[in-house]
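dumping this here before i forget
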Amino acid sequence: MRVDVTETRAEVPSHWHRKGQLVFALGGGVTCRVPSGLWMVPPHCGVWIPGSMEHSNIATANARIFFVYVEPGAADLPDRCCTLSISPLLRELIVELADHGQDDDSRKAVLTTVLLSELPRMPVQQLHMPISSEPRLRRIVDALAENPADRSNLAEWARRVALSESSLARLVVRETGLSFGRWRQQLHLIVAIRELASGASVQQVSADLGYESVTAFITMFKKALGKPPAQYLSSVALNGGSAFAA
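structure:
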């Protein structure tokens, strides 16, 4: 199924369905939220959501999105939510089936067979922010999602949730597997790629995330993902998502 988003962003509220779902962005970006985390769908990548998992989707303005619904057991896909690089071949199969899949049943069956055999071979990536059900961490996540420019340090967040700094640090590591700084950085990367994919400038994204300078933002981005923002998004578009394999 193909969905072209208008000039304003679109949100699909929390829901679930029996079939598994691949959310694939050909243009713009989508942020998926599941009980265990936030997952980013940059252009030419996809997020796999297993069947019966509750989730919501928020698409950037002018996004071009494809939903691929997969019957349980039809392909050897993960039983957890994950980001997948999408190869040029798989991309073209998805587009063809969405736009012309009703034209010829026998042709559709062949393309679907190839798609289901290729999809499990796509590399799994780690562009997500783990979310815990722990109430104090949920408070922090909701606050950061609402205002990602909040640069409060660990000690300030600890006071807000009535914990010592060391207790909050241990709690974040235990619940997410990441340090507090790395955990918050994941949210910044998700927001940054989403906004850059929708057409925002590096300067605007840097300011929206509360960085003191564009250089500081670019340094963070390059250290985390190996390339500066413009080069990174360009390589994703050219290589069908393979830039995420690093």
